[in-house]
Amino acid sequence: MKLNLALKAQIKNLITIALLISIAVTQNVAAETGKSAKTLAPEVSSKDAKVSFWDMPYLEQAFINTKPGVRKDNIAVGKLGIDGGNKAMIVKLAKDIAEKKYGLVDSLLIAHKDKLIFESYYLRGRVDLPHMQASSTKSYVSMAIGRAIELGHLTMADLDKPLVSFLKDLDTDKLVAGAETITLHKAMTMSSGMKITREQQKELKKKPEQLKGQGQVQTFLEHSPVINEASQQFNYTNTDPMLVMQVLDAVVPGSAKAFIKQELLDKMGITLYEWEDDVSGLPYGPYASSMTSRNMLKWGTLFKNQGKWQGKQLVSKAFINKATSRIVHPDPKEIFFVGEHVTNPGYGYYFWQADMTAGDKSYASTSAQGGGGQYIILIDELDLIIVTTAHEREDRTMKMAAEAVLPAFIN
Question: What's the pTM?
Fold first, then answer.
C-alpha cells in the first residue's frame, strides 16, 4: 500500500511537471506567433514601479512576438513574414539573443514599410520602461535644431555662423583665442576644437554657480586650450552637444526643455520618457535621456520620412538630409563598429553612417547610436528600421544588424 501511494505521488508530480512544461512551451510558441491574448508585451510591475532601470529585475522568459500588439501610441503594426522579412531567420535571432549570444540585449524591434512587424524584450526590457539612451540623445538634440530651423528660429545659413554670436550673455573679450571660429556646423560634427577634460569638468563643478545658463559656455571657453584648425578635427567629445543645447535655448521662445517637449515629443505622442538636466539648467545634450523602445521607433520614423510626422513637416527636410549624410569621414581603424560586414563609417550632425553588406550587395545605413547598445538603425533602400536597447559593454549591435537582420529582408 505504501509503495502504491508513493508511486501515485510520483506519477502525480510527473504529470504536474509535464503540464507546466506544456504551458511554458505553449506560451513561448504563442509569443512567437502572436496568437494568444497572453502575449501582451511585458510591462513594469507595480512592485518595480519605483525601481531604477539599473535595479530592474531580469525577465524570467524572453518575450518574442512576430505579430506586435496594437497599443495606444499610433504605431501601425503588421506581421513578420507576411508584411516583410523571413520569419524563421528573425525568430532564430531572437532565440540567440535570449541565450545571450549577442550580450545583454534588452529589446529588439523591427519596422518595415511603416509597420512594426517584430517586437521582443529580454532581461530589463519592458514595453513601458524608458530605457537609458546614452549618446542616442545627441541625435534627438540634432532633431531639435532641425525643428528650430523648420519654425524659422534658425536658418540653414546659421549653421555656419559663429556659435558665440547666438549667446548674448557671453563676455567675448575673456574667451580663449579662436573661440569665434566655432560654428554650429563644427559643434554638431564633433569638431569644435574646444577641449575640456573630464577632470576639468569635475573641478569646475565644484563651483556650480559659474556653470549656470550661458555661464557654462563662458567657463568652458575660458579654460579650453587655444582653438585653431589643428584642434578642429573630429573628436567624439561630450562637450560639443552642450554648446549646441545652449544655442537652442538662446534662439527658441521659452526654454530648450519646453521647446523639445512641445515641438517634438508632444507632437509625436511621446509622453513616457526622461531627460535629465545638466548643471547649466538645460537638458543634458550628450546623453541622459531615456525612451521606450517604441518611442525610439517613432524617432526612427521621423528620420526615415525626412522630418515628416504623420504628413506634417516637423523637422526641416534640408536639415535632416544634411544631418544624416556623411559630413565627416573618420578613420575606420578608430571606429569600433567597423567589421567584415560593416564598413565605410561616416558622421553627420550627431548621426552615424555605415555601409552594410549582405552577399555581394552593399546597403547604406544611418543610425543614432548610444553606448551599451541603444540604436536606431535606418536602412533606407529596404524601408527598414531596427531598434535595439541593451546594457552590454561589448557592443555588437551593428554586427548583429548586418549579419542577422539585414539578410532576412533581402529577397
Answer: 0.90
